[in-house]
Amino acid sequence: MRNRIFGAIGVVWGGFVLAGVFQRGTPGGGDAAYNFGYMIGVGFGLLMFAAGLYYLIRGDGTPKKKKKKTAPRAIRTPTEPPLL
Q1: How far from each other are the two terminal CA atoms of the chain, in whole angstroms?
Q2: Which of 5, 39, 55, 73 is least surrounded, with the fewest CB atoms within 10 Å of its CB?
């Protein structure tokens, strides 16, 4: 259930980032560092939206099967006393 909640948060947050990108459009001119940061933000929004959508659809949150813990084996002792 936790994966689905985080998936929904990722879809909403990534959707808001992408909606802001589509509303404002691409930055024209300006500083190259600003444009690079803008594109990194767009990529981060896409990644967050895609990962959130994946976990919202496929993240059922079932835990992986754990291996059963076996009791430690007893140390076998010889049945006959040692020869001296």
Answers
A1: 66
A2: 73
Q: Which of helix, strand or coil describes residue 80?
A: coil
d(CA 76, CA 65): 32
Q: How far is CA 55 from each of CA 58, 65, 67, rounded to the nearest angstrom? A: 5, 19, 25
pTM over 0.90: no
What SS3 state is found at 51?
helix
Report pLDDT digits (tens) over 33-49.
Answer: 888 888 898 999 999 99
- For the CA atoms of 59, 63, 64, 66, what is the dihedral angle to 10 degrees? 180
